[in-house]
Amino acid sequence: MTPEAAGRIVRVETFAVAPRWLFCRIETDQGVVGWGEPIVEGRAEAVRATVEVLAEYLLGQDPLRIEDHWQVMANGGFYRGGPVLSSALAGLDQALWDIAGKAYGVPVHALLGGPVRDRVRMYAWVGGDDPGQLAENVGARLEQGFDAVKMNATGRMPALASVADLTGVVERVALAREVLGPTRDVAVDFHGRVSAADARRILPLIAPLHPMFAEEPVLPDRPHLLRGVVTASSVPVATGERLYSRWDFRPALEAGVAVVQPDLSHAGGISETRRIAALAEVWDAKLAPHCPLGPIALAASLQVAFATPNFLIQEHSIGIHYNEGADLLDYVADTSVFAFTDGHVSRPTAPGLGIDVDEAAVRRADKPGHAWRNPVWRHDDGGFAEW
């Protein structure tokens, strides 16, 4: 296919599919189809409506003018940023890159400058809210071939941790480290559940267990507190799943975070994540895209990973506890693209995002749809608690 054969955009559709995802499909008048995954978990309806508004602009346009479309969709509405707009934009951006790869007959990473590696290291989720099955879950992931896992550091946490709370975090990480041994990695996710003061206390306590990184030890709206947490210990600090642009990431990088975690379904898609990764390189920070989502988001993340020099490791959602009623592989016709060998995935070679979406399965799943909402936690006194 030649680029001229891509045609003009004639249709933009969205599909709310279990367990909690939203897919979008862009079609041209030449029959070229691109897929994206625009979603804010728990707010799929709002993102779906925003995609419909942005689609008004895209209809009739040349799909290959990706950067121009990105600028118009991101900035042309006067009010900018935020999770809903950035996520709607992200999914549409993924779909446009998918069309571009198919038009040129190459995988997206070839359009991003070509591959800088032949395989990508993956990590798998093992729980941690309740430590009861943590050792068993870590062992199961090792049997699957993974040599890196991620766990929650805590369950619900009080405003300031008790000695028992602090000890509980250390015991959780120690349990995972015991199963993993010294040659494998554990990342510890704080999920914004602890205060900055407690983060400064906890990180030195788990430093001897050598976590790969400590994720989101500070809530994303408090970047002014990050430097104090970063300097409290030698544990590399990671953040970014709730940051949506290179401007959001700059304060975190200036505070000294070691790992940036933009989500390609939230942070403006492939286009903006590439810019965030380049910005991170200035501060010697690594890229580890957040992705507890579906197959299109993962495929987009991998395309960026294969073309990004400062990439570290990739998250995936296969078997994660959120996936009730459907899993990532249920929506792809050829699951071999996500076959993991020794905890790695090989470089995809098919055009576009490199996956064959099972459109029939997607359309079936959209009929019942979903209305997923995250839990709302409360402290013992009835006050709101961070989930």
TrEMBL record:
> Domain Mandelate racemase/muconate lactonizing enzyme C-terminal spans what residues?
131-236
Among the GO molecular function terms of this UniProt record, one is: metal ion binding
Its keywords, alphabetically, are: Lyase, Magnesium, Metal-binding
The answer, when asked if DNA-binding is one of the entry's keywords, is no
The lineage's top-level taxon is Bacteria
Is tRNA processing set as a keyword in this record?
Answer: no
One GO biological process this protein is involved in is:
D-galactonate catabolic process
Which SMART domains does the UniProt entry name for this protein?
MR_MLE
The record's listing under PROSITE patterns reads: MR_MLE_1
Q: Where are the transmembrane segments?
A: none
Which protein is depicted? Answer: Galactonate dehydratase
Instruction: Report the source organism.
Output: Asanoa ishikariensis
Q: Species lineage, top-down?
A: Bacteria, Bacillati, Actinomycetota, Actinomycetes, Micromonosporales
